[in-house]
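input
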Amino acid sequence: MAKGTQLKPSQLRWQCDPKLLRFRNLKEVSSCEWIIGQPRAIDAIKLGLNVKYPGYNIFITGPVGTGRTTAITKLLDDLKVKGALKDLLYVNNFKNPDMPKLIELPGGQGSKFRDALNKLIRGLKTNIPDVFDSEEYQKRKQRIVEKYGNQHRSLLKDFEKEVEKQGLKLTTIQMGPYVRPAIVPIIDDKPTNLDEAENLIKQGKLTEEDYQKILEKIRALEVDMAKIYSQIKEIQEAANAELERLNEWMVKPVVVNLVEDIKRKFHGAKIAAHLDEVLNTIMSNLERFLKKETKEEDFREYGVNVVVDNSETDDVPIIFETNPNYKNLFGTIERQTVMPGVITSDFANIKAGSLLRANGGYLIVNAFDALIEPGVWPALKRTLRNGVIDIQVFDPFYVFTTSALKPEPITIDVKVIMIGSQWLYYLLLHQDEDFKKIFKVKADFDTVMDKNARNISEYASFVKSICDGESLLPFSKEAIAEIVEYSVRVAGRKTKLSTRFNIIADTIRESDYWARQAGRKEVRGKDVEQAIDCWRKRMNMFEDKIQEMIDNDVLMISTKGKAVGQLNGLSVYQLGNYSFGRPVRITAKTSLGKAGIINIEREANLGGRTYNKGVLILSGFLRSRYAQDQPMAIDATLGFEQSYSEVDGDSASSAEVYALLSALSDAPLNQELAVTGSVNQHGDVQAIGGVNEKIEGFYEVCKSKGLTGNQGVIIPHANIEDLMLKQEIVDAVAAKKFRIFAVKTVDEGIELLTGIKAGRRTKKGFEKNSINQRVTQKLADYAEKMKGYTKPNKEK
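output
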């Protein structure tokens, strides 16, 4: 009769012998300056960093704490690539200010170009007034003024003589703020306006006939006056044109000389075209430079907006964007209020984002942070797909009209590295067609690595680096051995070490704290143990509450005796980053019927999908073994007693099988044993998760109720290599106070629980007095009763 394998203490925990550590003390160990345990991910990242073709951006996946950010930082630092970086500038478009122009210059030249233009404007504000104040300019201006002034005066003088010859006078009339020329008659040797002349008619001092003659003369002379003033206007325009030519002749060489000096320093068609526009605009607005009091804002359109300045950057830029909203990633166009209710923007309000600052280099962002920001993901896809960034305002909640500016788009060459989780990667892969085209490299960080001499040595180097970097106490060999053992426990497999270095680093820091509290000058093994125990104590309040309910028999758990259709299953509670195990009572009841297996948890909507699948699988196992020659005329209910929340996972399916077999065979089950393991349709017991927590949970219950030496746990044989139990349990097993069995099949498990052989199938059926024979007989009895069962008629 096979009853599974009773495990030895040496099988329950891997011990890290300090002799495996090939050093006498931590001083002989070098600090870890490399990436531990992620060769697959590192190779993928190196490929992505060095392949320059479009779409080879990198998506790094893996749990937090596996070194994703540290790895990419280290690899980028090691690259130390010197590239031909560019400064990006926006300048005013004098012909169309709503479409600022882009200028690209070699790194470090942008700020120099800006300073050169600022110097040009400052110089012109001094040089142009100096030219206008010069003696040469004043003489030439005076000659032009006198030349056209004489023509002006000659015309007016000849016209005035003609007017006086007619007995009239040329004068001016005030009309509000304006003055216009007028011809008035001379009566009684003094100029008289026409209104006064009309009064003279009424007084009889002027005849109507003489008045009409005066009017005729005035009308005729006004026609001539209009011609005269038209000629005067032409003279003034000619004077202004000649003065402008003088200004250009005197000032333009000064401006041209300064502009040409800038052209000699900065090359490129766009630079030359922009400087030509600057020159033309300056010559068209010379009067602006003559004002004595001016502000910098008065000459804003001549400025240069250096949106990306690489003057202090030697290597290619590496940008970590910790807040990847639209503005921070893609830049924006700021608004400025010129007066209440009036908001405007121009080229100087354009601001670069991280993508532009990383141009020619690398940008690292958190994938989830980027995806939850409005507008970021579509814009990022568009930018990476087209290689062009278009700076615009993204402000969907702004109540006013956004800026009408449309800056010239920028061609970018940037490698984007996103850090996220596995589920997010596959969500994007399956839901977004563009994702696979723009993120062609996946770097997957593992949570475990092989436990071998080299990796154990690297763990010691990691401890050393934490101690050196954070000024912690040195660790003894025993302390490092404890750290390595804890890493195996976190990894969940004896052959693996954990790469969740954030957990290990916290344990190192807390071990240092407890060593200092004890007044020691180095961290010992018991300090590491205390750090781990204290962490558990901080996290296990809920665990203690459940244990208290078991101790008070609020939760009914039996650790002694036997019972039919009842045994202790094992469950794991997951509370954030802390998990623990506790037993749960599983019961089965059978009766005559046709319903088959009734899953109470499912009927109550408390069964998860995996749990429900496990129940269906055990139903298949029962049919394949016991319903080949007869129908299963049975109603069987399965339930988790005192369970009021969702149950998921299939690790209780073996316990449910044992409960059903017990109920059908009337064979009592040993309540001193708890069971975990899933079952397939062949009756094999399969591996489950959380085996250490489950064993430790039942041990704590047994210890609280009193260890008998017969108590223990039945686990799947496939989980032996996962065992990394507390030393207390290993010692209890060594002292024969607790037992742990490993089984491969349901038959091995039922024999352990009942002490009765499972029974092999022969040509005549299962062996007599075996569990399988009893179950077969009970099902045959149910089937026979169903044949003779007749539903009674209702009484009339």
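quick obs: The two ends are 59 Å apart (CA to CA).
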